[in-house]
């Protein structure tokens, strides 16, 4: 292999997301006279198979052959993405021709057949969108005469596109080429780098669209724009095998932090993420003073230069054991005889005080030595961070608010990278506990006056006392309780807002661009979270959220202008921005702060808010006139806008659509408002009832898709969308309606992916795909239970439970192909979905066999 090719393969082997695409004939299979015997080369196929098995790697065939023929030759070795007929065929979708195109294809085929009838080895192949004149092994004079006749008869026909290839002339009746097919494949997998290998003149279209970071390999002789070349199919096999080895070594050495092994700390004003990176207990994410503030530690989204606070054992890397202390958010990490206890101090009413004073306490105990690395980086590392030693600790210089680290008895060494300073120390826990206290909002390094064990005890009581008040189902009781604690940790104590997650930009696709900031309050998500807690017997957070929600709605110009997202303080979000200096988790750029979805139209938001009030009313909570006023405002919002298209619950950055889920939630708003009115005022608004009937009729008429034989994602679209399960889960459709069963089966068939359920499988305008989403899994479990499929639902719930890591904190999604957790954590959607699914399973297990599903049990969509 040429040294320059080897070097290029080494470079693309380290790409975050790699696409390996090949032509078929002459690339994976030797060129033969009998095209029906063009069997793939064993070495090339084995190498492609090895690449396909690697994480963050996608393989593709882009060929002039039809998809059906390619599948016939490759069988189980077919790559994930196949483009046939020069890209006119995509996967198994086939080609849809107009009547004029079908007539044109028939004429071209007949003309070529007439030309080939002279014999001499000429043959014609009919494809879904083209006809090909083959002349391999044909006398040159006969071949040239046939080509000239084909050009004369068909070349001037409007709509015919000629593709001269390797001993073949192909006439297409659609606009397709391998370059566009490669672009589509790249978009489908979100590749950051591409290898394309081809031998045919038509492969030049693909070589021309390659970018500087990509690699193009031409097989055989002939002019080419490709930068690299191999002699034959054996050379292709060697190149693919080499790439597989390099890619495999890169993947094995990557050592990404498993998100499922991460834990979260909270004082209900901000959160910190603790990871087991390099065998330690590392605080790699923490924003101060609030959830949505700039980060002081952000190495979770970059390297160590982005800031972290690490404690690791001295003497080699050991896999730590990480658990919470009982039913609390006090985290304990153990290595043999050494342990670290971490918590954000919630004592003395801190959780409900205005953000600005935060204390992160870290206690090193046991036997053995530990290495401490304290590397704060102000404003995501954008502000130079300097450290100064004092008698009892360190002072962080450069911050608008004072920041200190109290560490009595610890002797620090400080070094600089030119911009930031880092402090390191080695301590021996055998001499007694080492207490580290990061204080934000004060420059005071004095003794706090209260011994650490007493502070820890107060924090244990803060969390465990609350957890003990919950009414937890018997089904997966421990994980339900842990999920409730995680949801409580996302509640912003000073205002009552609830954040969607504790982090930003943890990728839904490792190496991709699906990286979003979730450190804000979505009224929809917050209402669903509070509803889950109400179902466990806790009403306090729900009532406080409604107070926050009422203030937000009062500040709107009108209720129907309620935005999808707000800061935890209730203000509008700043513009979405990118932090270009951070590489992102798993090299997933960009790292985003802010969220442009705040400017979208999401008409489903009203339903969960009213549903929360209705659920509280059904549980006997005191519904105030302010709550009733909020309900009426939400109904007015629905009256004003329910007929409009919107961006939907999934916030696709596409044109607005009439999303089925949004329409159902508009109906749900009015329907649940009627429940509140009945409980609070013992009356029924006939105008509201008529409005609910009108919306329901609209959904049943336009949401049902005859082609899919199910309710789909949006009116007039036939793609499956897990959010369409709201049709039955909300009660809009009775559970014994055959359309409900058909919809559940359609979504299960289309979107089940291992132990999870995807949101949808449709181009949403962004490159690459994502993992299965835990909230969709929860919806599917509940849907199966409405159909009496308890065993099936139970199996899926057990698989859902298996997604929890040692600490019990869920991310947003799970990538079944790479078998990794992905997306932001701790994700409110994921934990509330598990709670709802477990509660529903518990009720199904105790309900009489003949009892019909009760729509009154449903408290969210």
Can you give a write-up of this model?
The protein has 861 residues and is of the alpha+beta class. It is 34% helix and 19% strand. Strands 12, 13, 14, 15, 16, 21, 25 and 26 form an 8-stranded antiparallel β-sheet that branches. Strands 17-18-19-20-27-24-23-22 form an 8-stranded antiparallel β-sheet, with helices on one face. β18 (331-335) and β19 form a beta hairpin. α13 (606-618) runs parallel beside α15 (660-681) and α19 (774-786) runs antiparallel to α20 (790-801).
List the helices and strands and how they pair.
Layout: H1 3-12, E1 18-22, H2 42-52, E2 57-62, H3 67-74, E3 81-84, E4 89-90, H4 99-116, E5 123-126, E6 130-134, H5 140-154, E7 161-165, E8 168-172, H6 178-189, E9 193-198, H7 204-208, E10 215-219, E11 228-230, H8 233-253, E12 263-266, E13 271-275, E14 281-287, E15 295-297, E16 308-313, E17 321-324, E18 331-335, E19 338-344, E20 358-366, E21 369-375, E22 386-390, E23 393-397, E24 403-406, E25 413-416, E26 421-428, E27 434-440, H9 452-468, H10 477-489, H11 523-535, H12 540-555, E28 577-578, E29 592-593, H13 606-618, H14 625-641, H15 660-681, H16 686-702, E30 704-705, E31 710-711, H17 726-729, H18 738-751, E32 752-753, E33 756-757, E34 772-773, H19 774-786, H20 790-801, E35 811-815, E36 820-825, H21 828-846
Parallel strand pairs: 1-2, 1-9, 2-3, 9-10, 10-11
Antiparallel strand pairs: 3-4, 5-6, 6-8, 7-8, 12-13, 13-14, 14-15, 14-16, 16-21, 17-18, 18-19, 19-20, 20-27, 21-26, 22-23, 23-24, 24-27, 25-26, 28-29, 30-31, 32-33, 34-35, 35-36
